[in-house]
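A reminder from the course coordinator: this example appears on the midterm review sheet, so study it carefully.

Given structure:
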């Protein structure tokens, strides 16, 4: 029986074989990689990844799709975790001491931001991540200070990862086609992120970007006096979207 894509699970299945092969080339799977795919769906990427891998893990929420995957792939080669990637403990995946996880996925767009934040806590266990996301979200992830797209997502993720937009993918590559362009992003965890408490950084950044049109001093008035900003080397008169990561970290370390 044909699977009817479920909107609530963000199901837009990749069907364009050229795009699929391009994505696999960018991921460049190697035998022995500890690969995990989030949201394998009908297995379009999974099948191609398994051409290079002896075994891999997948995390899929939709039970009907899990049943299909169980029928399609051998359990020796595909280890299926039925569950929600938003709460999944990626540290439970058994890997040799000298290895790190490679996480990939054409992600459900409706949960992409919380999922990226959930994954950030596993960054020390991760070699790299390759994700298909809305192009606009990838643009925000990689945005530099001074650009319109620069905001909370850019700062919080650039603190932990080096990132690049690798490929733009049009709606026609999917069934059903999404409303917007998509893009593949590569995320490589930074080995030693600038020392800072994640919750404090999040608090400063969220507060700073809550009123983008105001100058920084006014945005963060509830957290810092003007002198605190000056002592941290931050100009109180600038707009939050011009403040680089290092300055947000300096502020978080003063909280
Ligand atoms: N990888 C497939 C492809 O490229 O054709 C499917 C991608 S589709 C955009 C997103 C997939 O993520 C679907 O299979 C959906 O069921 C699954 N999914 C949605 N929410 C999820 C969640 N919270 N945890 C794990 N998988 C989820």
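Designed residues:
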């Amino acid at each position: 029986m044909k699977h009817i894509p479920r909107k609530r699970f963000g199901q837009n299945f990749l069907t364009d074989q050229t795009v699929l092969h391009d994505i696999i080339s960018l991921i460049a799977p190697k035998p022995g990689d500890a690969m995990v795919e989030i949201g394998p769906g009908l297995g379009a990427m999974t099948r191609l990844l398994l051409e290079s891998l002896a075994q891999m893990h997948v995390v899929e929420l939709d039970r009907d799709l899990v049943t299909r995957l169980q029928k399609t792939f051998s359990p020796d080669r595909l280890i299926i975790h039925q569950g929600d990637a938003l709460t999944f403990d990626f540290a439970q995946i058994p890997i040799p001491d000298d290895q790190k996880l490679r996480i990939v996925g054409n992600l459900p767009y409706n949960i992409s931001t919380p999922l990226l934040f959930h994954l950030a806590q596993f960054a020390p266990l991760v070699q790299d991540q390759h994700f298909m996301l809305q192009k606009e979200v990838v643009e925000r992830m990689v945005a530099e200070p001074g650009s319109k797209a620069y905001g909370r997502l850019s700062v919080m993720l650039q603190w932990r990862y080096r990132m690049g937009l690798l490929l733009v993918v049009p709606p026609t590559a999917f069934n059903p086609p999404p409303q917007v362009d998509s893009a593949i992003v590569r995320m490589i965890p930074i080995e030693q992120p600038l020392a800072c408490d994640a919750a404090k950084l999040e608090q400063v950044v969220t507060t700073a970007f809550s009123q983008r049109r105001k100058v920084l001093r006014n945005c963060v008035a509830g957290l810092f006096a003007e002198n605190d900003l000056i002592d941290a080397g931050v100009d109180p008169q600038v707009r939050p979207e011009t403040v680089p990561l290092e300055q947000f970290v300096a502020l978080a370390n003063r909280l």
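The mean pLDDT is 96. The chain has two domains: 7-189, 198-252.
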